[in-house]
Amino acid sequence: MFELKNVRVDGILQIEQLTIPENQFTCILGPSGSGKSTLLRLLNDLSSPDEGEIFFKSKPVSYIDPLQLRRKVVMVSQAPVIFGGSIEDNLQIGLSFSGKEAVNAHEMESLLKLFMLDKKLSDEAENLSGGEKQRLSWARAMLLDPEVYLLDEPTSALDEETARTVLTRFYEYAQQNSKTVIMITHSKELAELVAEQTIDMSQYSIESGLS
Amino acid sequence: MDDVMDLSFLQLAAAYIFILILIVIVRVRGIPREKEILLATVRMSLQLVLVGYLLVYLFDNPNPFYTLVIIAIMQVFAIYNVYKRTKHPLGGEMKKHIAYAMGIGILTSLFFFILVVLNVTPWYEPRYFIPIAGMIIGNSMTGVSLGVNNLISGFASHRAEIEGALMLGATPKDAAKKVVNEAFDSAMLPTINSMVGMGIIFLPGMMTGQILSGTSPIVAVEYQIAIMLGIVGSVSLTVILYLQMAYKSFFNERLQLVMKELKK
Fold first, then answer.
1. A24 touching B, CB under 8 A?
2. Predicted model pTM
3. Contacts of residue A76 in chain B, CB cutoff 8 Å?
């Protein structure tokens, strides 16, 4: 799905060669500051490498329209982004951003259930807890039905049990719908639960002195 | 119109007693501001006297070239003032957007006001053109200054939200919509507030000046309403033009958020 060749981000990353397979659940592990989030930003084209080339489906990312790429390769940041308004507003805004049609209440409610969010669609999103906001922004990305999910520690604010349940449910959805998932996690346990492939970022990190 | 009361030199000198009072206050309280107060008073007096003589000359010799030169000088000073007033260092591109927006927005509103609303003949009649240009340029300058500051600080404080929208495939326009709208709103607010308070909390300067010089209050009010609407038009046009051009400079050709205007 993705291939990185001689990619360098000054002071952070140096990747000679890295391939991330299609339709698989890939977990990215590594200590803080090893460039995990930087890698996801590169794949979402939110920033560009200082050197090297990234390929998406064998095509250089720099040749792909960034909007079209981001609509296929959706990223969810670690700090959840809330856009103001209700839970429903926050779910629908992703669809409106990517030019897709609005979905009905039933669809949104079943998504909230999947993410163990026992809330009404009309509830103010700003009043949710950190963990709830994290699941809401994850659910918002799921409504977009992208080919690739880039998830930056999507369970960091969840308790262990909720994290396991939500992640297992998401894993099943990804398997059934042949989605490519690239997820950063600090938890080796969670990685073992879902990962079909793991990438240890410390080997690419400039800071760690291993590259 | 014929009962205009001219101020004698002594009467005008008596007004300077207010400055003496201010100087006594700061001296007694030990506030080190005497020099600035004196300098400001001298500058204000000299600048206005010079402008008075300049206007007398221009009014006696109406000439389209003179009028246009005066407008150009006012515009340049206003643009330069916006550059100086912003709290953030401005890049070349941002300065260009400010200059373009102020040029197009102000001139469009000014000529519409002079040619259509007032229907002045000849169009360059300095008695109308210069004071009206002064009011329109001054207010637009304040609006754009607020717009610049709020746009830049909005991008800095809403960075995560803007990138969060981009991650989902939003266009820069959609991603920056909230920041642009808030910047527009805060730039327009002083103008809207001054409309609300006008006539009750204060009498606007132009109207007061006209009434003091013997114009009927009704005529003065008509002019004041017209100029206020002209100011609203110019401020909104200038600010929206600026914002529409400027938000794009926060994104590069890969539609990535780049904060080059925020490097300090």
1. no
2. 0.84
3. 167
